[in-house]
Amino acid sequence: MKRESGFDPFAVSRVGAAGLTQIMPQTALDLGMKNIFKPGYFEKAFQIKEQERKKRSEAMSAMARITPEDGLQIAIHARELMQESIAMAQEKEKFLTQYKNDLLRKRQDDRFKPEQAIEHGLRYFARLLQEQEGDLSLALAAYNAGSHRVKEHKGIPPFAETVLFRNKVSDYYREYLKRVENRIQ
Asked: Which pTM does this prediction carry?
C-alpha cells in the first residue's frame, strides 16, 4: 500500500488502478467487489492501447529493415506508423484522464473504501503468491504488471515500473521484518 498509493485511499493511477491497494476495475469485479466505476470509454482506452503497441511494434520492425537501397520508402512508412502510434497514445491518455477525473469526482467506488480495498487487495495478493508458488518477487511483479505478463515473459517483465515496484516493496518488506525482529528480541 505504501508503494502503490502512498496510503491515500483516493489514489488513482495513470492507468485506472484505484484505492489504497491500487486495484484495476476488472480485477476488483473479479475479486467480488460490487460498486466499481467502469464506463465504456475505459475499455476503449485499453483497446486503443493494444492498437498503439501494435503500430509502434510495426514501426520498430520497419526501422530495423532499413537498408541503403530501399531505406527512404521504409523510413517514410516507419514514420507514418510511429505517428499513428503517437496519435493513439494521445487518444488513450485522453480517455484515461477522463476516467480518473470522473472517478475522483463521483467517489462512488468500493476501491475507495479502505476496509474493502485492504481485504480484497490482500486476497488478490495471496492468490498471486499461490499462483507463483510462493515466489514473492514474481507475485509482486504479477500484482504490478499482471499475471499474464509474468507468464508471457517467463519471469519478471522487463518494465522499469515493474522492476522498481518489486524492488521497493521488497525493501519495505525487509525493513518491516527487521523492525518486527527487533521488537521480539
From this structure: 0.83
